[in-house]
Amino acid sequence: MNETIQPELAKTICAISHELNRQIGILADRKGNVHYVIVGDTSEVFIPGLERFPLVPGSLRGLRLLHTHLSGEDITDDDLTDLALLRLDSVTALHFNQDGHSYGMQTAHLLPPDNVNYYDFLTDKDPHQQKIDYLAFITELEAEISSKTKRLHKVDTGSHALLIGCYKSKVQGSENMAELSELARSANMYVTGEVVQIKDKLHPKYVIGSGKLKEIVIKSMQNGVEFLVFDNPLSPAQAKAIADFTDLKILDRPQLILDIFAKRATTNDGKIRVELAQLKYLLPRLSQRDDSLSRLTGGIGGRGPGNTKLEIDRRRTNDRIAMLSRKLKKIEKNRETMRRKRNRNELPIVSIIGYTNAGKSTLLNSLTQSGVYADDLMFATLDTSSKRIRFPQERDVIITDTVGFIRDLPENLKGAFKSTLEELQDADVLLHVVDISSDGFDSHVHSVETILQELELTDKESILVLNKTDLLLQHETDYIQFGEMPDDADPEMFTRAHRIVNLIERYNKVCMVSALHRKSFRELLELIRLTLFADGIDIEPMGIEDYFGHRSIDGTT
């Protein structure tokens, strides 16, 4: 029969432990082969790294820990922590008498994810009289854990992630976590849950504190989570500390954004910029071993340069950065030549800017009847697109779409795409597109305005384009239009509409559109035309048909 521990082995371990007055432990696989012998101190054993035994989400590691307790104490909290964090098959504490003879044991094992507790104990208490077929029990337990973990997951595709953030207020936490969830979705992750902690200061080592991190990791490993995604940017030391704490894959918000950029970049220009940003992010993390990087190779967080820290040294990374920088300078030189040529043609330029996923590419497609890729994802398009639109009286205008803005854009990405954003200097008009259906549209507007200030573009002519009006409720639309609410109305129902009105009052030129419906563009097109061509002269107003004709205004004849 397959026993938890062979009686002779238990006898030998206990005798040596008694003689040395130290805890002795072994790590054995399911065939009984011993892979590690550990000599601890009087109170604990220190388990080595288990990289040779990688974990598969929803399964066990295939190793059991068998170790002595000098004072006959039962399984401790530290034992249970090792069991859960390392996903061991089991942890057994061996007891011996004053002569060093083994007389008792206690074995803890993990439970499937639908249980209140995450662990339980085997009934065998005597190493010399074991009745449980250990191999059959563990095999059946693992199958049940795997099956129930899969049933917890609502989708079979993508990686499963738990989102974590530490904030100073609940409002900030709610907005930032909603955005992080959208970023995760854009990276093809399935979000299994969120952990928000409200604190004045971040924990210097683990961001959220060791106790909370332990609780999160145990629950995550029990539920088959693969990624812990932190909204707070992690320093190299924090990333390493958290990676040393758990075998789960670790990502922070900058890494997630970098990964999305790497996935979306299609042109040579875009790929060079993203790789350059990734290498600059990687560089300070090469000074010490960082398992949080090596675990990401080949998947989310590992796109782009495609090398682990162990494969690249700082010198080679610096060489690569220098080479990519030279390539980028050549590309920017060619881009500058094209800009000068375009400026000589004296065609006015309208640049569409805004927060990511505000509907900029959809608006460009609808205005110009083009087919630029657009999707309900953050950073669906990275590369600048320029299209020509003809206004009445044979007036041509260049309309460009730019990469989406986002709060706290990673500095490396900001630097890599700075020259692209600087092209906005050539724009005659900026269309600032805002998704007013988003709960955080106020903060999105603030983030865009901050970046415009950094680029010294606040003096440019701009039009605030409030997009996705089709997602507003009817009573909100009425309030925005007429400024009144019914006497018996609940004021909370008008909170978003009131915020929209406040936003409108801050700007001189504002229009409301739905990028999906071209018949809503009349006010926008008139504003663009009057801004570009009025030049102090009265211009006759145009109808929507003057721009698009009588067909295909909203997809119908």
The gist of it:
The chain has 557 residues and is of the alpha/beta class. The chain is 39% helix and 18% strand. It contains 18 helices and 16 strands.
Description:
- By secondary structure, the chain is of the alpha/beta class.
- Helix content is 39%, strand content 18%.
- The protein is built from 18 helices and 16 strands.
- It has helices at 7-20, 77-86, 134-152, 170-186, 210-222, 236-245, 253-264, 268-282, 291-294, 314-344, 360-368, 411-416, 418-422, 441-454, 474-482, 495-505, 522-533, 544-548; strands spanning 24-29, 34-39, 63-68, 90-96, 102-110, 119-121, 159-167, 189-198, 227-230, 249-252, 349-354, 385-391, 395-401, 429-435, 462-467, 510-512.
- Strands 2-1-3-4-5-6 form a 6-stranded mixed β-sheet. A 6-stranded mixed β-sheet has the order 12-13-11-14-15-16, with helices on both faces. A 4-stranded parallel β-sheet has the order 8-7-9-10, sandwiched between helices.
- A hairpin with a 5-residue loop joins strand 4 and strand 5 (102-110).
- Helix 4 (170-186) runs parallel beside helix 7, helix 8 (268-282) runs antiparallel to helix 10 (314-344) and helix 15 packs parallel to helix 16 (495-505).
- It is elongated, with a radius of gyration of 30 Å.
